[in-house]
Amino acid sequence: MNELFALLFLLGFGGWGFANSVRIVNQGKMALVERLGSYHRRLEPGLNLTLPLIERVVFEETIREKVLDIPPQQCITRDNVTITVDAVIYWRIIDMERAYYKVENLTMAMTNLVQTQIRAEIGKLELDETFTARTQINENLLRDLDIATDPWGVKVTRVELRDIAPSQAVKDSMELQMSAERKRRAAILTSEGEREAAINSARGKAEAQVLTAEAEQKAAILAAEAQQKVVVLRAQAERQDQILRAQGTAEAMKIIAAALREDPQAKEALQFLLAQGYLDMGRTIGHSNSSKVLFIDPSSIPATIEGVKSLIEQPSREV
After folding, report:
1. Does residue 5 contact residue 13 with C-beta atoms inside 8 Å?
2. CA angle, 39 then 41 then 44, to 5°
3. What residues form DSSP beta bridges with 90?
4. CATH class of segment(s) 66-166
């Protein structure tokens, strides 16, 4: 009976020891084992065996990247404006031993460290800069946190400020400022538009005046050239007319000379016609509109006829 009880005790103790000696670590995790209260070794993913009552697993954590949500906190900018900032941190454990033995509560330590760094970075900037320098803030936080958490065996891979919210009073003042800025820009754009319109109008008038002056100048040049051509053509026409008249007179003289040569009695008729033409010329001058005084000596008419007669007879002798 005692032997049976001892056998059952041994079997039960052996089963319990075997069950406690087997430890399965899932993929993506690691575990730390202490032997008699001091760090002994690290368990890799898979099936691992430990010594019951001598070794125990004290820490098991994932080595995958984790997300740490930083709650909203109030920060004061360099121009003494209170804003509320929250963030999100991406990190992972790269040294399991340091992550367990160097810090007691890793998550709380990282949260407090991130909040402190955020307050420090926001305090370096003014309110307007916090909205435009978010990328710079993220880079500075990542650099500082990566250095600060390196002794804990932690690698910070990314830091993102999620929301920057000023107080309601600051929002109201910012809206007023933006409204005033928009009005100022609208006034500037309106004045610039009016100035451009005035410049374009003045430029258009100046160009129109220049074009008008050029057109008038070209018209005057064309008119002068046309007038000059008219004068030249008129002079040419008058010269041609004089030439034709002279030619006609010469032809008439030739015809008269030939007639006088063939018919001697034509001289008396020619003399009569000349005298009559001389008298008609005086009558025509006397009937003109302008006031004229014509002195004619009746006794000089026969002498004039004789002079014309001599002129007629001379060409006839020459012919």
Report:
1. no
2. 140
3. 67, 158
4. alpha beta
**pLDDT (tens digit, 9 = 90+) per residue, 105-162?**
888 999 999 999 999 998 888 888 888 888 888 999 999 998 999 999 999 999 998 8
Sketch the domain layout of the chain as residue ranges.
2-62, 66-166, 264-319
38's tokens: 């001091």
Tokens 């435009």 belong to residue: 132
> Could you give the angle at the alpha carbon of 292 between the alpha carbons of 289 and 295, nearest 5°?
140
d(Cα 283, Cα 275) in Å, to the nearest integer?
A: 13
Provide φ and ψ at 201, rounded to 5°: -65, -45
* Nearest-angstrom CA–CA distance, 38 and 58: 10
Rg of the Cα trace of the chain?
65
Helix, strand or coil, per DSSP, at residue 62: strand
CA neighbor of 32 nearest in space, from 155, 113, 153, 156: 153
State residue 162 phi and psi, 5-degree precision: -85, -40
Of the candidates 123, 112, 160, 121, the one whose C-alpha atom is nearest the C-alpha of residue 144 is 121
DSSP 1: -
Please tell me the distance from the alpha carbon of residue 261 to that of residue 165, in angstroms, as a whole number: 135
Give the span between the Cα atoms of 140 and 249, in whole angstroms. 118
Place of tokens 């009746």: 298
